[in-house]
Amino acid sequence: MNIFKNMKIGLRLGLGFGAVMLIFAAVIIITILSLKTATNSAKHVAGESLPFALLADEMAFNVVQVQQFLTDVSATHDTEVYKEAEDAAKGFMQGITKFKDMFKRKNDAKSLKEIEDLEAAFNKFYESGKYMANVYITQGIEAGNKIMEELDKTAETLSKKTAEFKRIQVDEANVNANGIVRVVYKVQIIQFVLGIVAMLLGGLIAFFITISIKRPLSQGILLAEAIAEGDLTCKIDKAVLDIGGEVGHLIRGLGKMSDSLKDSLMQIEMLAARLASVSEELSASSVQIAKGAESQTQKASQVATASTEMSATIVEIARSTS
Predict the structure, then answer these.
(1) For a FRET experiment, which of 17, 130, 252, 313 has its CA 20 to 30 Å from that of 165?
(2) How far is residue 230 CA from its own chain's centroid?
C-alpha cells in the first residue's frame, strides 16, 4: 500500500487499467485457443468422422449388393448380372482404399492392419460368391446351396466388421462433439468468472485510487482555503505529507507556501515594531525641537524689545543734547 500511495497518478491509473486490460486479454486469448480447439474438432468431425462413418455404411451396403447380385446370377443364370456385382465390389474396394489412406496418414498401424484383413476377407468372399454362382450354373442347385450357406456366414461376418469401422467413426464423432460442447461450456465459465474478477478488481482499483487522491486533495483544499482566509495556523497530517507523487508534491508545496507566508508575516511584524519605535523616537525629538524653537523665539523677542528701548533712549539723549 505504501508503494501504491507513493506512485504518480498516471502510473496508478496505468497499473489499474492495465490489470483490468490484462484480464480481458487473458479472456480473449483463452477464448481464441479454446475456439481453435473446438474448430479443429468440428473440422475433424465434418472432414473425417462423419464421412468415413457414411463410407463404412456404404461399404456394408456394397457387401449386401455383391451377395444379392451373385445370388441373382445363381438363381437366373444371367451372367450379365456379374457386371453389377463387380461394380458393387469396386465400390467396396474404393472405400477400403480411402480407409487405408486415412490410417496411413494418421500412422494408425493397428487400424491399417484391420482394414487390410477386411480387404483380404472381402476378396475371398467375392471370389467365393463368383464360384458359388458358377456352381449353381454348372452343377445345379444342390451343389450351389452348400456353398451359399458358407457364403452367407462370410457376408454376415464382413457386415459386422464393416459395422465396427462405422461404430469407431461414430464414436470418434461423438467424442469430438462432446469435446466441442465441453470447450464452449468452459469458455463460457471462464468468461463469466474472469468478467466478475475484472469488474471486482476494477472497482477495488478505482476505490483505492480515488481514496488515495481524494484524502490528500481534501487536506490541500482545506489548507488553501485557510491560507486564503489568512489563517496560517492550519496543519496537514503527517501521513498526508509522506504521500509521494504529484498530490504529495502539491500538498508539501502548499505547506511550504504557508510556512513562507508565516515567516514573511513575522518579519513584517518585527519591521512594523521597529518602525513604531523609530516613529516614537522621532516624535519625541520633534517635541524637543519645537520647545527649543519656542525658547529661541521668546529670546529674540526680548532682544528686539531691548533694542527698541535702546533706540528710544538714544533719540531722547540726542534731543537733550541739542
Answers:
(1) 130
(2) 50
42 contacts 176 by C-beta, under 8 angstroms: yes
Using only the alpha carbons of the chain, give its radius of gyration. 60
The model's pTM: 0.57
Cell numbers representing residue 281 in the block: 523616537
- Reduced 3-state DSSP string for 73-106: HHHHCCCCHHHHHHHHHHHHHHHHHHHHHHHHHC
Cell digits of residue 62: 456394397
The whole-angstrom separation of Cα 65 and Cα 78 is: 16
Distance CA 61, CA 67 (A): 10
The residue written with cell numbers 478488481 in the block is 201
Q: Is 153 exposed, middle or buried (0-12, 13-18, 19+ CB in 10 A)?
A: exposed
